[in-house]
Design goal:
single chain; 71 residues; mainly alpha; 55% helix
């Protein structure tokens, strides 16, 4: 599942929020957010901002397969 799909699921589970409303909360245009959804192109700071406005926590980590250690 790509990040766009995950964000769309969050939009539904966090109160059926529209993409336009998400863009407004982020302070960007709906067109810019739509482009990011289309290209599935989000920066870590953008994902953190999305999490903040949707009252979620964004976590990212590398996990070493041989040991299971998160880095």
């Amino acid at each position: 599942m790509n990040m766009t799909q995950r964000i769309r699921i969050l939009l539904v589970t966090q109160g059926n929020i529209s993409e336009a409303e998400l863009a407004r909360r982020m302070g960007i245009t709906p067109q810019k957010l739509s482009y990011k959804f289309k290209k599935n192109n989000f920066t870590i700071p953008e994902l953190e901002q999305i999490a903040k406005v949707l009252d979620c926590t964004f976590e990212t980590a590398f996990r070493v397969n041989s040991t299971g250690e998160a880095i």
